[in-house]
Design a protein that fits this description.
Largest sheet: none
Shape: rod-shaped
Number of helices: 1
Helix content: over 70%
Distance between the termini: 79 Å
Length: about 60
């Protein structure tokens, strides 16, 4: 009986370690997405302005 309890506990430890790793990876991905948005936002605004200018000029 104690063997099963020990195996169950070991399994929970493995799952916990994996959950922590996934949580850290998600956090890192969130930071990377935030940096990418910050880099792309000015370019997106410039592109939208250029598109409006072209639409007004009829080109």
């Amino acid at each position: 009986m104690m063997l099963f309890v020990g195996l169950a506990f070991a399994g929970l430890v493995v799952l916990s370690v994996c959950a922590v790793k996934v949580g850290l990876a998600v956090r890192g991905l969130g930071r990377e997405l935030q940096r990418t948005r910050a880099r792309l936002e000015p370019k997106q605004e410039a592109l939208a302005g250029e598109l409006q200018r072209l639409e007004r000029s009829g080109e």
